[in-house]
Amino acid sequence: MTGDQVFVLNGPNLNLLGTREPEVYGTATLADIETNVRAKAADLGLAVDFRQTNHEGVLVDWLHEAQAAGAKAVLLNAAAYTHTSIALLDAIKAIAVPVIEVHLSDPEQREPFRHHSYVQLAAVEVVKGLGADSYLVALERAAAL
Ligand code: DQA
């Protein structure tokens, strides 16, 4: 349905995509990813609110805002907070909006400290390991919800 809104929320250090560990995350910048997400969203008839912050509490506030806005879904790449943040887990559980967890890399194929995801405990789906395309696949999943 045209007009359904999807929040795409990005956590710490993702503003540095493009130059940050390109061997892990690829060379696409977050602006490149946003451009591709917006193009795909237009195809799918979705509106996108695309944001990035380095601050945990801001992500919590934005999850609440997605609920208040009546968003159809949230795509959440919580970056390192994925592995540490009970506050984010609680926020996801506190809202009715379905959250899809997104990662460029596959954290389970990396260091052991990345194997546990608090976000996954409440997310409806996880899309990971596809590089920048993870966002596009997650958006398709959101459209299908
Ligand atoms: C990441 C994976 C996390 O483990 C890491 O802390 C990130 C990025 C990803 O998209 O692959 O910052 O979320």
Report how far apart the termini are: 11 Å
Query: Can you summarize the main beta sheet?
Result: 5 strands, parallel
Tell the overall outline.
globular
The number of strands is: 5
Q: In percent terms, what proportion of residues is strand? A: 15-25%
- List all distinct small molecules, including ions and cofactors, that are bound in this structure: 1,3,4-trihydroxy-5-OXO-cyclohexanecarboxylic acid
Structural class by sheet pairing and helices: alpha/beta
Rg, Cα atoms, Å = 14 Å
Strand order of the largest sheet: 2-1-3-4-5
Helix fraction, binned, reads: 25-40%
Instruction: State the order of secondary-structure elements, H for helix, E for strand.
Output: EHHEHEHEEH
Mean pLDDT across all amino acids: 97
Weakly predicted, low-confidence segments: none
Contiguous helical run count: 5
